[in-house]
Amino acid sequence: MAFFDYHTEIVKQLKTHPTYNRVVKYGSSVPTAPYIVVKEEYDNNTKRQVFRIISHFTKGQSEFMKFYTRKDVYDLLHGFKIKDSGGATVMVVSCQNRDLGELPVSSDDATISREAVYYVPDSMQIQS
Fold first, then answer.
1. pLDDT in tens, 9-45
2. Is the pTM of this model over 0.70?
3. Please, what are the domains in the chain?
């Protein structure tokens, strides 16, 4: 499979949400809440790149955050097809067993956050 920036494609896809579309890559300056951070990292357990989708909402919005993280992100990403620079089409998959943050976590910027984890399988190429 050719090298491809899946990180950017995942950010673009999350930005299509009609309400919660302030999405940035980890390390970028963050907008005002609610906002979403996408962090790409290597998972030593599964030996693959994973994408942590971290939803940040203001305190008091935990139900909106829970719905967004569990339902909206899943609807936007699970099964989302990306065509890489080599022409192969791959599909984003939820790591439901790695869905983190059962309870909202307080963040440095006075927001609460919750995350979900997704990956793009190396070996799962699909026909377009």
1. 999 999 999 988 999 999 999 889 999 999 999 888 8
2. yes
3. 6-126 (3.30.2000)
Contacts of 90 (CB under 8 A, 6+ apart): 1, 6, 81, 82, 84, 120, 121, 124, 125, 126
- With CA atoms as reference, report the closest residue to 74 among 94, 52, 103: 94
Residue 89 to residues 32, 37, 71, 120, 126, Cα–Cα distance (Å): 34, 25, 24, 10, 6
Whether residue 126 is predicted with pLDDT greater than 50 in this model: the reply is no
Residue 34's nearest CA partner among 68, 7, 83 is: 68
On the question of pLDDT at 92 being above 80, the answer is yes
Question: What does the block give as tokens for 87?
Answer: 């022409």
Distance of alpha carbon 33 from alpha carbon 36, whole angstroms? 8
C-alpha dist (Å) from residue 121 to 19, 35, 81: 29, 26, 11
